Amino acid sequence: MLLADWRLLWLLLLLPVALFLPAMPIDETRYLAVAWEMRLHGDFLVPHLNGMPYSDKPPLLFWLINLGWFVAGMHAWAVRLGVLASSFASLYLFGRVVRRLDPSPALAQNATLLLLGMIYFALFSSAIMFDVVLATWVLVALHGALDLDAQRWRRGIGLLALGIGLGILTKGPVVLLDAGLVVAFGPWWSETARANKGRWYGALGLGVLGGAAIALAWAIPAAIAGGDKYADAIFLHQTVDRMTKSFAHRRPLWWYFMVLPAMALPWTLVMRAPWRAWYASFHISKSARFGIAWFVPAFTVFCLVSGKQPHYLLPLLPGLALYLAVVLGSDGARLRGRVFGALLLLAGTALAALPYLAAHAHDIGVLDRLHLTESSLRVFAGVWPLWGALGIVLGGWLLFVRAAHASLRALALSSVAAASIGMLALAQGVGPYVDVSAAAARIAQAQAAGKPIAHLGWHHGLFEFAGRLTQPLEKVDYEDLAAWCAAHPDGEIVTFYTKYQIAAKPELELPYRFGRIIFWRAADLLAAPLPAPPVKVDEDETPED
Questions:
Q1: C-alpha dihedral sign at 351, 355, 361, 364
Q2: Are the CB atoms for 103 and 142 separated by under 8 Å?
Q3: Is 508 helix (H, G, I), strand (E, B) or coil?
């Protein structure tokens, strides 16, 4: 009951983020656009983006988004609440996994607090992203693995198949790395697997086949309806190609080793344990072996794949939290809250000073040499110092009041509170500059009036949900801009990219992120000479993860 109370506090701390943080470009707005088109056209089989089949992701998240809209209305916050509910379910399922591995309530409580206190888990708990929901299905599959360990073979195969199938429908076969490898390493952590290897791996095979059957129940009809190109994309491009030659977010082998310590804060700063506790735990603890089998093999594979993003590791963080919980229960292990308190104090001070620094950046030598754009300085100047003050209070409380008796609960909830403060500061300061509703309304108005309008460069569906667009927004490449304007002299061109140095006077400019959304009349573009095409490709034009 006490653990549930701490989970409830976690939920209450993050609830304002779910309610007030707007959909963030480019990913979240794109996923809302796909869900909007699904609702608009009533096609729940083949997802579409800007009128074209969208093969980059399976449909389950888009189905769930529409379910949330059916219940609470078409709002971004309704979707965030649904994702937060999924994260809450993950915490519950994780606690149950730990209790099934070890009956100790203390280990389950500590492992859950370690997970919910990880700064990256808190930051992404309401993110409109696939990995958050995927983590829930991974935990369902691992409950199936524990059923196999308990020799409940039928239920184990059923849960394993369910978790794998829903995981594939969420983000594709990557679930086989997140959950399947834990079962594949079963003989290392399970006595049942060691004693019944044939039956164990047979059950794993049946679970994978069952999961594939669940996924194929959608994929085969979708491939038929979407055509050969869509079928090739969902069966090959988003699976085999991603593993063999990632086409986005290519990073070096060691990159995850650099970002993981930041993702696991505050525990990378505050946990101290003798060396023997780190290496001896998996020799004596089934829970530690399970956690290592959950995290290490999949982490290794992710390191070998060239495409890397921090959120790919989200479904593995519970395994890391489980191992850390076992280590924390060892003799000599302790928590030192002063370092984290000092970090929060410094971060809060920097956040509180951010508006002043942005307003006087040109008078401060170090900042002036960074050559920050006026748009970025305007965004930073709009952040309330109050958020930094809250960070200072939180850090000071840990550093001076709780330092001598910093409990796991206090540190975990302080980390969640810090994440909430940071995200609310983002919502308040940056929120107005990622709100594209004014631009989207203008586009919708032009389309409704039959006025030609096109976007210069790929727009990622940025305006579709915000403007409730009912028809695709045409994309024009820079090389074809003059020809399009000549063919549509009464039309308009819009873009959010800053790389196009066009001399023609815009008809309308709206602030967007660290730049602008610009509208030109086609006639004005025809009257002004167009510069040579830009050489550098904007980072927002790279394929999605």
A1: negative
A2: no
A3: strand
Residue 248 has pLDDT above 90, yes or no: no
Task: Look at residue 127 in the predicted model and tell me its pLDDT.
Answer: 95
Q: How many residues does the chain have?
A: 545
Q: Is pLDDT at 46 greater than 70 in this prediction?
A: yes
> Which residue in the block uniquely carries the two structure tokens 């006595």?
191
Question: Residue 42: what pLDDT?
Answer: 92
Residue in the structure block whose two tokens are 């794993």: 204
Contact criterion met (CB below 8 Å) for 206 and 144: no
Token output for 543 = 């394929």
Q: Are 290 and 265 in contact (CB under 8 A)?
A: no
Q: Which two tokens stand for residue 5?
A: 């109370």
Name the nearest CA neighbour of 436 among 76, 127, 129, 15. Answer: 76
| Residue 265 Cα to chain centre, angstroms | 17
- Contact at 8 Å (CB) between 315 and 115? no
| Tokens linked to 408 | 């796991």
Rounded Cα gap, residues 120 and 129, in angstroms? 13
Element (H, E) at 438: helix 437-448
Ordered by start, the domain boundaries in the chain are: 2-335, 337-434, 437-541
- Write the secondary structure of 245-287 as one string of H (helix), E (strand) and C (coil): CCCCCECCCCHHHHHHHHHCCCHHHHEECCHHHHHHHHHHCHH
Shortest CA distance to 481 belongs to which of 456, 504, 451, 499?
456
Closest-CA residue to 229 (of 461, 58, 52): 52
Q: Tens digit of pLDDT for each residue in 401-412? A: 766 567 889 899
Q: Dihedral (C-alpha) 427, 429, 434, 439: value to the nearest 10 degrees?
A: 120
Strand 453-456 and strand 492-495: pairing?
parallel
| Confidence at residue 368, expressed as pLDDT on a 0 to 100 scale | 54
d(CA 438, CA 444): 10
Question: Residue 421 CA to chain centroid, in angstroms?
Answer: 18
Report pLDDT for 388: 93
Tokens of 219: 């994929």
Q: Are strands 492-495 and 508-512 parallel, antiparallel or unpaired?
A: unpaired
Q: pLDDT value at position 240?
A: 56
User: Using N-to-C axis directions, what is the helix angle for 286-304 and 255-263, rounded to 10°?
Assistant: 130
CA 453 – CA 68 distance, rounded (Å):
32
Computed over every residue of the chain, the mean pLDDT equals: 89
Terminal-residue alpha carbon distance, the chain: 39
Do residues 403 and 341 make contact, with C-beta atoms less than 8 angstroms apart? yes
Give residue 263's Cα distance to chain centre.
12
Dist CA 259 CA 285 (whole Å): 28
Instruction: Report the distance separating Cα 122 and Cα 85, nearest Å.
Output: 13
Token readout for 26 is 């480019």
Tens digits of residue pLDDT in 74-101: 999 999 999 999 999 999 999 999 999 9
- Three-class SS state of 364: coil
For residue 435 the two structure tokens come to 């709100």
Residue the block writes with tokens 């983000």: 171
Confidence tier at 499 by pLDDT (50, 70, 90): confident
What lies within 8 Å, CB to CB, of 361 at 6+ separation is 367, 368, 370, 372, 377
